[in-house]
């Protein structure tokens, strides 16, 4: 790990080029240790392969490593984009028996079924109830684990009230 305010990169004039988390993920070229490299099959398009290194590992890791989802548990996931779907896959691999997906796009439920989503809540169509109330009613008290990957601050339907305590 480099010290604060240092860099592995300099420009042609010797000036430090600052980068994000010492990886420079938005750079065209970068320098990394060989331990962090993986050869990608040329048949896999780069715009698909890049998801594995960030979105998929973040989501699966959140369920599997960070939360340590237990077998037989109920999981609620807010936002069914790349990371949310990866959380569903991680929860499924951990043995969760009920995985509730929450989103504003119903077509994501069909996609989510392939990743283990068993139930769907349309966040914009809960009649006069909050999403939290709907989940509490569906589960008889709330989900054991809740994950939020909405990505938009204006979607304020995400609350901690739907989790069992």
Describe the fold and architecture.
The longest helix has 21 residues, at 46-66. The chain has helices spanning 46-66, 82-94, 107-113, 131-139, and strands at 74-78, 98-103, 119-122, 145-148. The two termini are 38 Å apart. The mean pLDDT is 84. It is built from four helices and four strands; from the N terminus they run αβαβαβαβ. It is elongated, with a radius of gyration of 20 Å. The protein has a domain at 56-162: Rossmann fold (3-Layer(aba) Sandwich), CATH 3.40.50.720. The protein has 165 residues and is α/β, with parallel strands linked by helices. A four-stranded parallel sheet has the order 3-2-1-4, with helices on both faces.
Quick tags:
Rossmann fold, 4 helices, four-stranded parallel sheet, alpha/beta, 12% strand, 30% helix, 165 residues
Summarize the structure.
It comes from Trifolium subterraneum. With 165 residues, the protein is of the alpha/beta class. It has helices spanning 46-66, 82-94, 107-113, 131-139, and strands at residues 74-78, 98-103, 119-122, 145-148.
Query: What sequence of helices (H) and strands (E) makes up the elements?
Result: HEHEHEHE
Largest sheet properties: 4 strands, parallel
CATH architecture tag of the domain at 56-162: 3-Layer(aba) Sandwich
Task: Say what the CATH topology of the domain at 56-162 is.
Answer: Rossmann fold
Subunit structure: Homodimer.
Keywords: Metal-binding, Zinc
Protein name: Alcohol dehydrogenase-like C-terminal domain-containing protein
InterPro entries: ADH-like_C (IPR013149), NAD(P)-bd_dom_sf (IPR036291)
